[in-house]
Design a protein that fits this description.
mainly alpha, 74% helix, 0% strand, globular
Length: 434
């Protein structure tokens, strides 16, 4: 028993280090490709795209489409006909991911995002972290149940390192991936995410992913939180259904090598007029979070950004949707803030952006708690005056999503757990409470 416990401790520590190292390498690859092909060395990706000429925007995305499309086609022919999936691996009898195929797929995802694909970059480090956790656990001799926990913890740690969200990565492990034996997975999830984030700090520093201007409590934000949450819930459901339909109709085989370049080239053509569209969504989200985006541009990007992400997925590309969803929510909040300002002058657009981003993220990730934690960590974690409005918006968004037929991971987990952990007299046990 003691030896088994120490093996799990060793596997947890190793998974955190491996997920952190892989996340750092993938991020460095992302930056290297962006700087090389978009021709900038400082500032942000959005500024790099804005400074690029019209021809460069089209050519870079077209080239990225060819590289990524052909690479995905060849990798699927060589390794598997289906996409690598962390959730499928967790449900399998042998909780494992094919290490080489998963890492190759992760690298292609990062390459695609670096060229400007409208996809989140978190999918790649999540897969890589999960792929590392499984073999490490098996090599150290942990049980199959513990390997599942390590698989989920490695995925959460991969998310944590690339976005500097240690608590968000742990929450993602428990709530979004629905890690088996959730209570037993809490400590491994926290430890792996903390270690991975620390590895990232050594290379990228400790600055938050987004930086907000100074914020003070606003009665307007609290007053508008409920209706904004309702709208965010509807937007989140539409986003999820749009992405699901896109993935369902994605081509396979050699058609991917044709469809991906065509869609990427079209995205490059749109980027001539809207340089905010390429990339994972950090650019438009930043504009919404710092309050520098106008109503017209915010409304246009609110429609175009999710469509661009769906088009990439519909072409057969693989990537995350977390940051595109966050950007969609932030843009929705910016639009709502500008409109609210017409009715009630002085509406805090930045706070509207944060509330709507958390609401949309809660619905798209099926995880209200994770959405709240992620949102606050992404914007620095010090803006606690937004806690009440954000909670109201997230609860409203989650309730609307449930009413529209989309339940969250937390509700499903409680439904499965609480009824099966009661005493015979109907009183809940301590296991049901903690």
């Amino acid at each position: 028993m003691i030896r088994a416990a120490w093996r799990m401790v060793a596997a947890t520590l190793a998974t955190g280090v491996a997920a952190g190292g892989l996340g750092v390498l993938l991020t460095l690859l992302l930056h290297a490709i962006q700087h090389l092909f978009w021709g900038y060395t400082e500032n942000t990706f959005l500024i790099g795209v804005e400074h690029a000429g019209a021809a460069r925007r089209i050519l870079v995305l077209a080239a990225g489409g060819v590289v990524a499309g052909v690479a995905w086609w060849l990798s699927r022919r060589a390794f598997t006909t289906e996409s690598v999936s962390v959730t499928h691996a967790m449900r399998a009898q042998r909780p494992d991911l094919p290490l080489v195929a998963t890492i190759i797929d992760a690298v292609i995802q990062i390459v695609a995002v670096a060229f400007g694909a409208s996809l989140g970059r978190e999918g790649a480090p999540r897969q890589a972290g999960a792929a590392a956790g499984g073999p490490l656990g098996r090599w150290l001799g942990v049980s199959a149940a513990q390997q599942r926990i390590l698989l989920a913890a490695g995925a959460g740690a991969g998310l944590a390192v690339v976005y500097n969200v240690p608590l968000g990565g742990a929450a993602f492990t428990i709530e979004v991936l629905r890690a088996p034996f959730a209570v037993r997975a809490i400590v491994p999830a926290l430890v792996t995410s903390a270690i991975a984030t620390t590895v990232g700090w050594a290379v990228f520093g400790t600055r938050p992913f987004y930086e907000l201007p100074a914020i003070s409590f606003s009665g307007q934000a609290l007053a508008w939180a409920l209706p904004l949450g309702v709208v965010a819930g509807v937007a989140g459901v539409v986003f999820v259904r749009l992405m699901t339909a896109a993935r369902r109709h994605a081509p396979s085989g050699w058609r991917v090598a044709v469809a991906v370049p065509l869609v990427f080239t079209a995205l490059g053509a749109l980027a001539v007029a809207y340089p905010q569209l390429p990339g994972n969504g950090r650019g438009p989200a930043t504009l919404a979070f710092d309050g520098s985006i106008g109503l017209g541009l915010a409304a246009t990007l609110l429609v175009c950004k999710p469509l661009a992400t769906a088009a990439c997925l519909g072409a057969g590309a693989i990537g995350g949707t977390l940051t595109p969803a966050l950007a969609t929510g932030a843009l929705l909040g910016a639009v709502a803030g500008h409109l609210a300002d017409e009715l009630w002058p002085g509406a805090p657009v930045v706070q509207f952006a944060v509330m709507a981003a958390a609401g949309v993220l809660a619905v798209t990730q099926h995880a209200p708690l994770t959405a709240v934690i992620l949102t606050f960590e992404l914007v620095g974690g010090t803006h606690l005056v937004l806690l009440a409005p954000v909670l109201v918006a997230v609860i409203a968004a989650t309730a609307v999503a449930a009413a529209l037929g989309q339940r969250g991971a937390l509700a499903d987990w409680l439904r499965r757990t609480v009824p099966t952990t009661r005493h015979r007299r109907g009183r809940p046990s301590r296991a049901a409470l903690f």
